[in-house]
């Protein structure tokens, strides 16, 4: 843990104080699109296993 902390401090000390970068509005929309796509993927890929678990749970409860 201490090695990570020291590495982080060294990286912060060596990084420049300001970055001369430009982010245009299209880049912002690209970030939003990526975030929404990631959220949609999580919903789709998490929903299916949850439904299968619910089916198994219902099957087990109906046997009792």
What do you see in this structure?
The chain has helices at 2-14, 25-63. The protein has a domain at 25-64. The protein has 64 residues and is mainly α. The mean pLDDT is 87. The chain contains 2 helices and no strands. It is elongated, with a radius of gyration of 23 Å.
Which properties best describe this structure?
81% helix, 0% strand, 64 residues, mainly alpha
Summarize the structure.
This protein is mostly helical and 64 residues long. It has a domain at 25-64.
Provide the gyration radius in Å: 23 Å
What structural category characterises the helix and strand content?
A: mainly alpha
Please report which band the strand proportion falls in: under 5%, 5-15%, 15-25%, 25-35%, 35-45% or over 45%.
under 5%
Describe the global form.
elongated
The pLDDT mean sits at 87
Low-pLDDT residue spans: none
**Total number of helical segments?**
2
Strand elements, count:
0
**What are the secondary-structure elements, in order, as H or E?**
HH
Helix content: over 70%
Largest sheet: none
Distance between the termini: 49 Å
Task: Map the helices and strands.
Blueprint: H1 2-14, H2 25-63
């Amino acid at each position: 843990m201490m090695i990570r902390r020291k590495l982080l401090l060294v990286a912060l000390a060596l990084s420049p104080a300001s970055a001369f970068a430009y982010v245009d509005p299209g880049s912002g929309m690209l970030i939003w699109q990526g975030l929404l796509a990631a959220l949609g993927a999580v919903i789709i890929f998490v929903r299916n296993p949850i439904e299968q678990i619910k089916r198994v749970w219902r099957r087990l409860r109906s046997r009792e």
